Amino acid sequence: MTHRFLLEGVVRRFRQTRSRHKIEALRIEQFAVRRGEILAVVGPNGSGKSTLLEAMAFLARPDEGRVLLDGQDVWATGRQLAARRRCPMLLQKTVLFGTSVLHNVMYGLRVRGMARAEARRRALKTLAIVGMDSLAHRASGELSGGQRQRISLARLLALEPETLLLDEPTAHVDFVNEQLIEEAIRDLHRRLGTTVILASHNLRQAKTLADRVITLVDGSPIPGTMDNLFTGSLARDGDEVVFRDESGPTFRFPPEAVRSEEDGTLPLDKETVQIAIDADRLLLEAVTDQEQAALAGTIASVRRRGDRCRLRIHFATGRGLHAEMTRADYGRLGLNLDTTVAVTFGPGAVRVFPTGG
Amino acid sequence: MQTFKDALENALRLVLSLDANVVEYAQRTLLIALVSTLIASLIGIPVGMFIAERRFPGKRAVVTLLNTLLAVPTVAVGLLVYTLLSRNGPLGSWELLFTVPGIIIGEVLLIVPIVTAFTVTAVARTDRDVRKTALTLGANSRQALWIVFRESRFGVLAAVIAAFGRVVSEVGVAMIVGGNADEFTRTLTTATVQNVDMGNFALALALGLVLLAISLSVNVLFQYFQGGGHQ
Question: Is B11 contained in some domain?
Answer without folding.
Answer: no
